[in-house]
Amino acid sequence: MATLLIRNGIVITATDLYEGDVFIDGEKIAAIGSSLQMSADRIIDAKRKYVLPGGIDVHTHLDMPFGGTTSGDDFESGTIAAAHGGTTSIVDFAIQYKGQTLHHAWETWMKKAEGKAAIDYGFHMIITDLSDQVEEEMDALVRQGITSFKLFMAYPGVFMLDDASIFRALLRTGSNGGTICMHAENGGVIDVLVKQALAEGKTAPKYHALTRPARAEGEATHRAIALAEMADVPIYIVHLSAAEALEMVTEARDRGLPAFAETCPQYLFLSYDNYEEPGFNGAKYVMSPPLRPKETQERLWRGLAFNDLQAISTDHCPFCMKEQKTLGKNDFSKIPNGAPGIETRMSLVYDGGVRTGRISLNRFVELTSTSPAKIFGLFPRKGTIAPGSDADIVIFDPEKKMRLSQKTLHMNVDYNPYEGREVVGVTDTVISRGRVIIQGGKFVARAGSGSFIKRASR
Ligand code: URP
Ligand code: ZN
Ligand code: ZN
């Protein structure tokens, strides 16, 4: 077993901040201390750098068929890009298509990931067809480490479930200890608005946003939480974008309900104005829920600071402008929904959150690693720096500058939503279960060394 000593860094967890050394033995953190007198096979000097728990991104879509095409990053390119950005674990979404078993979906997604993933991965299971047999399978999956399920209140005819099915799935997590993740947008209302807009000849990308009102997200969020309250179980709202939805989560939490939610960097740094970019450029930002008015950004930051929002994930789902987004050249409803972000999360949140004083360094770690690890059954194996935890560590240079650009980032997509934006705070070295996989900003490992993570239930 190889040993590794990280010296002189500033170790930051969700609760602590101190100068110290971290000693790694094999895949695990073995000791933490000041001026550790231990010999090691390798020593890394982290002076003036932050030593953080590896980032955990609990919302990615790698190699996912969607909107008549497939997301551009597979488990190899997507996880290498994630590693460059300081993420050492992802939880991706496996899809049960109508008529299929959950087991079939799991097998299909395992084949996509095995031998390709460069970092550790788990799966949430998307349920689109709920029968008695599928409910039993939910129990079996929870026992096997797939402990969360995504349901959709949007995309009628594709992914959307009715309220009765949603309620049954929620009830089932009450007995099996799983967690329901909800895509909360009112799909029926959106469908009517989309048809209306197209009938009026409104085909440009901006109509994607204009037909998905913030209130449609607020209403669905309220309904999702109400259903979870009646089932007496926790709920996790994914990719929350609207102030109207945040109000619903805040109100529920103030009443003591176990309602949790994540937001994503795109909702913190981009806005509706991006849809007004010339030509077909607005298609770069077609995602669901859509980008919201700029004023919403400060509301979301407050939600993050005051724990009404518990996690920042990416919803990484990249589609190239050429040949993929253009499927909707003459009809915004045919633009594949999704955007890239797996690589830029940590730098964007550090630069726009910590450096501006909106969140503390501890909160930065909590939102990007510890809290998602706790909610999704990975803690304390992952999500912190402690003896016995997996040695998933990021050495982060808080002073280094980087200009974000599609040309220098590693995601397999032909544009970047933040093109030209300068960020301060860059991942320097990444260690995944004791192996150095990024060194001086370069990928130095091999794809396929990531493992499936069996997650714990509640
Ligand atoms: O536009 C998005 N968010 N694409 C990915 C699928 C989803 O709903 O998360
Ligand atoms: Zn979704
Ligand atoms: Zn998603």
Layout of secondary structure:
Elements (H helix, E strand, L loop, with lengths): L2 E10 L4 E9 L2 E6 L8 E4 L4 E4 L1 E6 L4 E2 L2 E2 L4 H10 L2 E9 L6 H12 L6 E7 L5 H12 L4 E5 L10 H14 L2 E5 L3 H13 L6 H5 L3 H18 L3 E3 L5 H12 L4 E5 L1 H5 L26 H10 L5 E2 L32 H10 L6 H15 L17 E11 L18 E11 L2 E5 L2 E2 L15
Parallel strand pairs: 1-4, 1-5, 6-9, 9-10, 10-11, 11-12, 12-13, 13-14, 14-15
Antiparallel strand pairs: 1-2, 2-3, 5-16, 7-8, 16-17, 17-18, 18-19
The chain binds N-(aminocarbonyl)-beta-alanine and zinc ion (ZN) (2 copies).
What does this protein look like?
With 458 residues, this protein is an alpha/beta fold. It has a single domain, classed as Metal-dependent hydrolases (TIM Barrel). It is 30% helix and 24% strand. The protein has twelve helices and 19 strands. Strands 1, 2, 3, 4, 5, 16, 17, 18 and 19 form a nine-stranded mixed β-sheet that branches. An eight-stranded parallel β-sheet has the order 6-9-10-11-12-13-14-15. Strands 7-8 form a two-stranded antiparallel sheet. Strand 13, helix 8 and strand 14 form a beta-alpha-beta unit. Helix 3 runs parallel beside helix 4 and helix 4 crosses helix 7. 56% of the residues are buried. The mean pLDDT is 98. The chain binds N-(aminocarbonyl)-beta-alanine (URP) and zinc ion (ZN) (2 copies). The site of one zinc ion has 3 residues, from loops.
What gross morphology would you assign? globular
Sheet/helix structural class = alpha/beta
Q: Please give the count of helices.
A: 12
CATH H-level name... which superfamily? Answer: Metal-dependent hydrolases
Biggest sheet layout: 9 strands, mixed
Low-confidence stretches: none
Number of domains: 1
CATH topology: TIM Barrel
Overall mean pLDDT: 98
| Ligand names | N-(aminocarbonyl)-beta-alanine, zinc ion
> Between the first and last Cα atoms, what is the distance in angstroms?
33 Å
Number of strands: 19
Residues in helix, %: 25-40%
If classified by CATH, what would the architecture be?
Alpha-Beta Barrel
